[in-house]
């Protein structure tokens, strides 16, 4: 049973790791434009 | 500890950037909606950044690392359930769609729209209690991290954390939600880099397989199976599942972002992506905690292990980046939480108690005053209160005070036409009873100098107590509503 759990957590960890990298890269690269727009709308 | 001039420069650069971003909006914030919900102009990328930065505090990393250190990979279940809750809500729009459409500023405001002003005030009081009690441990855990990570003497810690808190209070009080969103974004950049690099470095010595194999030696099979772990098990999974849903829809710092987004569709996208990010939010610090247990032994200090490990393994430059990331985590969460509770105090407690509502100028003034008071409470409580159990458990207990009645009142209000005002009062009263009694008893015992568990703690184990609180909350709503159906029903 432990081997199954080990495998499950390894897969979930890799998915979580990749998901984190992909989404944070996207958010960082596009977020600056949204930040500028938010400030522009305030003026 | 290799803290160099380069590391110091990186940290100072970050603090200066965050302070600058927080201050530049001061003169541009002229309307109360800018201050409270950023004029409802938040789009997807800023929305994800601010939600992740808010919910990923230094306190979060500390309590997840502590869970990983003590209980091994079984603690991953916390992240899986939390991420699933966000994903589910993002997919279905459960509760959040309706809330965003209502154009309200706080979730507790919904209780006066659907039920009565008194329900809003009761909900606000419970939320303020839960919020301020939870804020109490933020500075404490932040200080533990800084002591072990930077090796600063304990006397200087209070000065460092107080200075950071004052900086946060200033930019939050001046720029409100816009300041918080902008600083959150800068903090998100530092956090994301810092967390990924740290995780790779913690595991790089043994590799993925080697790391898991070494963990088997320390935790044995129990450390992998959450269903058969004495700390978790079925009761925890049931309790944590309803808790996680409540966290998505009821927790004011999260809700403030739901209500700040441009429209409900953006909300749902933010929730779906944040769900995936929240896997990392839990997994990374848990891995660091496990790494610390493998390095120093499972019987060493579970709170201090993670910062001690990071201080030893991180090279020059990365150390500064991670320190900036940790300061970022601390400041972003503190600022969002302080703003959130300040908003609740003014919008849902002080204002509804008055005969004539505040005008915008008075509202802003009271908001800034509340923010200052919360900062002082944070400092006093953070220095005085001692945790008996893990920080994670403490936060679960204090937050359940509000969630256990808030969830049935909110969900029932939206989806059950028969829910009445009396039912909502009963939900809050029944749901808050057990966790509030436990927390009050704990504080009274500590004030009397006792470190023994009290009557409530001895009567019910934490997971059963937590789940039972939600069950009582739902029972209160149903029974209270059915008994008073004719007099108190409003359209759902």
Tags for this model:
heterodimer; A: 43 residues; mainly alpha; 1 helix; 0% strand; B: 492 residues; Sodium/glucose cotransporter; globular
Largest sheet of chain B: none
Query: Structural class of chain A, please?
Result: mainly alpha
Distinct helical segment count of chain B:
21
The top level CATH class name of the largest domain in chain B:
Mainly Alpha
The portion of residues forming beta strands of chain A comes to under 5%
Oligomer: heterodimer
Radius of gyration of chain B over all CA atoms, rounded: 22 Å
N→C terminal distance of chain B: 59 Å
Head-to-tail CA distance between termini of chain A? 61 Å
CATH H-level superfamily title of the largest domain in chain B: Sodium/glucose cotransporter
Unreliable spans of chain A are none
**Helix amount of chain A:** over 70%
Averaged pLDDT of chain A = 88
Overall pLDDT level of chain B: 85
Examine the secondary-structure arrangement and name the CATH architecture of the largest domain in chain B.
Answer: Up-down Bundle
General description of the model:
- The complex is a heterodimer of chains A (43) and B (492).
- With 43 residues, chain A is mainly α.
- Chain A has one helix spanning 2-42.
- Chain A has one domain (1-43).
- The N and C termini of chain A lie far apart (61 Å).
- By secondary structure, chain B is an all-alpha fold.
- Chain B has 2 domains: 5-385, Sodium/glucose cotransporter (Up-down Bundle); 388-492, no CATH class.
- Helix content of chain B is 80%, strand content 0%.
- Chain B has helices at residues 5-24, 32-37, 44-55, 58-71, 76-92, 96-101, 107-114, 117-150, 154-204, 207-219, 233-250, 252-258, 264-296, 305-313, 318-353, 360-384, 391-415, 421-447, 455-459, 462-483, 485-488.
- The longest helix of chain B has 51 residues, at 154-204.
- The radius of gyration of chain B is 22 Å and the shape is globular.
- The mean pLDDT of chain B is 85.
- Classes of the chains: A mainly alpha (43), B mainly alpha (492).
- Chains A and B meet through helix 1 of A and helix 3, helix 5, helix 9, helix 10 and helix 13 of B.
């Amino acid at each position: 049973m432990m081997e199954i759990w080990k495998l499950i957590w390894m897969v979930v960890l890799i998915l979580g790791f990749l998901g984190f990298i992909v989404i944070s890269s996207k958010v960082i690269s596009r977020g600056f434009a949204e930040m500028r727009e938010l400030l522009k709308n305030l003026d | 500890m290799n803290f160099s001039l380069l590391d110091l420069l990186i940290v100072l650069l970050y603090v200066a950037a965050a302070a600058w971003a927080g201050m530049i909006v001061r003169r541009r914030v002229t309307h109360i909606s800018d201050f409270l919900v950023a004029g409802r102009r938040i789009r997807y990328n800023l929305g994800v950044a601010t939600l992740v930065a808010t919910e990923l505090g230094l306190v979060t990393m500390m309590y997840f690392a502590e869970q990983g250190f003590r209980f091994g990979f079984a603690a991953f279940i916390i992240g899986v359930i939390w991420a699933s809750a966000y994903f589910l809500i993002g997919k279905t729009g459960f509760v959040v769609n309706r809330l965003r459409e209502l154009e309200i500023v706080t979730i507790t405001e919904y209780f006066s729209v659907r039920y009565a002003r008194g329900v809003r005030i009761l909900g606000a009081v419970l939320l303020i209690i839960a919020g301020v009690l939870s804020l109490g441990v933020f500075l404490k855990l932040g200080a533990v991290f800084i002591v072990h990570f930077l090796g600063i003497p304990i006397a200087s810690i209070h000065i460092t954390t107080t200075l950071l808190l004052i900086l946060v209070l200033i930019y939050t009080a001046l720029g409100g939600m816009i300041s918080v969103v902008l600083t959150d974004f800068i903090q998100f950049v530092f956090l994301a880099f810092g967390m990924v690099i740290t995780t790779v470095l913690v595991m790089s010595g043994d590799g993925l397989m080697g790391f898991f194999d070494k963990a088997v030696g320390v935790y044995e099979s129990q450390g992998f199976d959450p269903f058969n772990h004495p700390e978790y098990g079925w009761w925890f999974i049931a309790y944590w599942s309803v808790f996680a849903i409540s966290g998505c829809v009821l927790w004011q710092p999260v809700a403030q972002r739901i209500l700040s987004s441009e429209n409900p569709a953006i909300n749902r996208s933010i929730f779906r992506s944040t769900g995936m990010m929240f896997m990392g939010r839990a997994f990374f610090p848990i891995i660091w905690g496990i790494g610390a247990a493998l390095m120093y032994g499972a019987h060493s200090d579970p709170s201090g292990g993670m910062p001690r490990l990071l201080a030893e393994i991180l090279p020059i430059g990365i150390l500064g980046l991670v320190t900036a990331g940790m300061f970022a985590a601390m400041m972003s969460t503190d600022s969002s939480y302080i703003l959130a509770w300040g908003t609740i105090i003014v919008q849902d407690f002080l204002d509804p108690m008055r005969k004539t509502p505040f005008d915008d100028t008075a509202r802003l003034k009271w908001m800034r005053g509340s923010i200052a008071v919360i900062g002082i409470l944070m400092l006093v409580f953070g220095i005085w209160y001692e945790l008996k159990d893990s920080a994670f458990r403490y936060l679960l207990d204090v937050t359940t005070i509000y969630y256990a009645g808030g969830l049935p009142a909110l969900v029932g209000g939206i989806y059950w036409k028969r829910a009445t005002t009396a039912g909502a009062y009963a939900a809050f009263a029944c749901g808050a009873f057990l966790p509030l009694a436990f927390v009050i008893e704990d504080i009274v015992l500590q004030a009397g100098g006792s470190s023994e568990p009290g009557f409530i703690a001895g009567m019910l184990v934490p997971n059963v107590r937590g789940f039972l609180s939600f069950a009582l909350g739902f029972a209160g709503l149903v029974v209270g509503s059915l008994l008073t159906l004719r007099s108190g029903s409003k359209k759902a």
